[in-house]
Structure formats: structure tokens, C-alpha cells
Amino acid sequence: METETQIEHETHPGILAAAVQAQLAGARAAGLDCRQLLLDAEINPTLLEEPDNRIPRERVALLLRREWDLLADESGGFLARPWLPGTFAMMGHACISCPNLRRALLRSGRFVSMVSDDLQIKLVEDGEEARLLIHHGNDRHLPNQIFVESLALIWLRFFSWLIDRTILLERVHLAFPPPDYNEDYSDMFPCRHYFHQRETCLVFSTRYLQMPLVRDEQQLAEFLGRAPECLLAQYKSDNSYTGRVRRMLQNQGGIENLSLDDVAARLYTSPQTLRRRLKEEGNSWQDIKDSVRRDMAVYQLKKQETAVAEIAERLGFSEPSAFNRAFKKWTGLAPGAYREKFRGP
User: Fold this and answer.
1) Do 274 and 264 meet the contact criterion of CB atoms below 8 Å apart?
2) Hey, CA dihedral for 65, 180, 33, 138, is it positive or negative?
3) Does 326 share its domain with 231?
4) Looking at the structure, do residues 225 and 258 belong to the same domain, yes or no?
């Protein structure tokens, strides 16, 4: 039987070289020959010299497996106490018997505390909002942003798979500045992103926490047999209202030319029903529109010579100062500073 959610199998542009380079920090610190690691994974080492190059997902999966095997550490050398081979699988087996997502996330946090000295994963509920906090003490003093982001991504995708539903994020907080590969954030975390925060956490609706786990041991074994490649792919609901609204806005020439009423009509529903559906998915029309605006702004600042004032107008802001305030809230940087940082002189 087909389910409404699935791991992506369509053509994927690959993973940015900047992210792959960052992932090798633990291997470099351990003294591994990273050039040979890349060659073993059939990756030309020169590809990593240009941050915007794309590495095929299956090659990155092979690289990670090779790195973990040589280090005997599934954390890739980032944790003070290595995650011996099979640690993640044991966590999965520990969680799969839980009755619902809440219990599974709580159990995963307890498991991580048992096998790690400098890593904590904690579920916090506040009204209708749930936060999954990820704190890495970084006892090894490595550049650990990619590690924390990867853990957040793995937890999001694995537990979405366990309940066979996409856990739609309301926002993600990052205790880091925007990375060199942040143009992929829309695929990694399709929601609002806030950098320079006190803590790293995924924020989503508590309605997901009551959802039952629907996988069995055999399915888990098959899933783990495909790891880590299956965790590098987005687990998503192709038919979610959030996804469909987002795609419509992305394909629209001028984002302000498409109203909620227009989108509702294209989806053969009423504006009131569409608002309700989006709320059920933990989103809103304004949140999605802001997310698409942010992504368009980031792309134009990094890839084009368009003036900031013109970008603001294209995105429907009444004046450049309003765009500047919004962009700084999204990324922690003003548009001009962001362009200078990521494009150079």
C-alpha cells in the first residue's frame, strides 16, 4: 500500500561541497587522510575546492560510511565518547516499541544521554508548541555546526519515517551564524530559520506527539540497511497543503501577485478551509510567504547583481527598510552584509 509520505527518489542536485568539507572536520582532527577518504568514495578531491560544487548523494553516503568505519565512530569524530558502530541502530530499536512520537522522542533523548558525555537531545512542550533541543557541549572543540545540523535533520527525518507523516516545522533556531551552504536550508528545514540563537531547536506543533509509530522491526531493519543515504533524502508529504502552497509561490513571477484567495481557488477549496488546513500542518499563509520571500532574497543576493531596493520591490516590501528589517530577522545579517559575506568583494 502506498503511504502519503515517502523518501525522495527523484533526481537530487547533490550536496554542496561546503557541507561535505565541514563534515570532515572530525576525520581531519583524528588524523585521517581525507583525500584518500574522498577517493575511496569515488569523489574527486578537487570538487571540494569550490564550495558551490555539488556531490552526488550516494557518494556522500559512501564517504560517511567509510569515515565511520575508519573512526569506529558514527558521530564522525565530533563526540567526546565515540558512537560505536550500531549505536544509531540500537537507538532505533529502543524507540520502535513506543506507542507514539512523544514517548519515542523522550526515549531517544534518554538513550543519547546514556551513550554520550557532551550531547543532549531534549523534548520540551509549551502549550501547542513542541521544541526538540539539541545541545552539543563540543568537548573536542571542533567546528561543530554541521554536526548539530545533521543531528537535527536525522532526528526530523527518522521520526517522520517512524510515524509515516512529515513533521512540518514551524521554525528552526540555530545557535550558529548562517553557514556557507545555507542555500540548501529550504530543503533541509522547510520553515523559517533563525540564526545566532541561544539554542538549537526544531519547533513544531504538539499535535504530532500523539501520533502512533507505524513501523515494525522488519521495516526498521530495511531502513537501517539503507542508511545513511535514506537519511540524506527529505522525508516529505508531496500532497501537503504547505508543500503545494509553497510550490505555487515559488513558481509565481511576483510573489505579491498571488493572494490567498487565488491559491485557494487553484486548490479547489475556500480561503477559510485553506487557512485551517495550513494551521493543522503547523503553518500559516504568512509563514509560508515569508519563507519563500527569504529563499528568493538569499538566492538573489548570492547569485545576482540585483540592487537591494529592487529585490525588496520584487518581494512585495513597501520600502527597502522594511525588507532590511525582515532579512536581518531571518538571517542575522542585513542584506548588504549578507551579500558581502557570501559573495566576496
Assistant:
1) yes
2) negative
3) no
4) no
Q: Are residues 187 and 105 in the same domain?
A: yes
Question: Is 305 found in the same domain as 252?
Answer: yes
Alpha helix (H) residue ranges in 116-256: 145-163, 185-188, 217-225, 241-250
Convert the pLDDT of each residue in 249-274 to its tens digit.
877 666 777 889 999 999 889 999 99
Task: Judge whether 153 lies within some domain.
Answer: yes
Q: Which residue type sits at 88?
A: F
- Best CA proximity match to 146, nearest among 60, 205, 81, 226: 60
Mode of pairing for the β-strands spanning 169-173 and 192-194 = parallel
Residue 204, H or E segment: strand 200-205
Residue with cell 531547536: 201
For residue range 32-61, list pLDDT tens digits in order: 999 999 999 999 999 999 988 999 988 999
Residues in contact with 233: Cβ distance below 8 Å, sequence separation at least 6, in sequence order: 7, 8, 9, 12, 57, 157
Do 190 and 291 lie in a common domain?
Answer: no
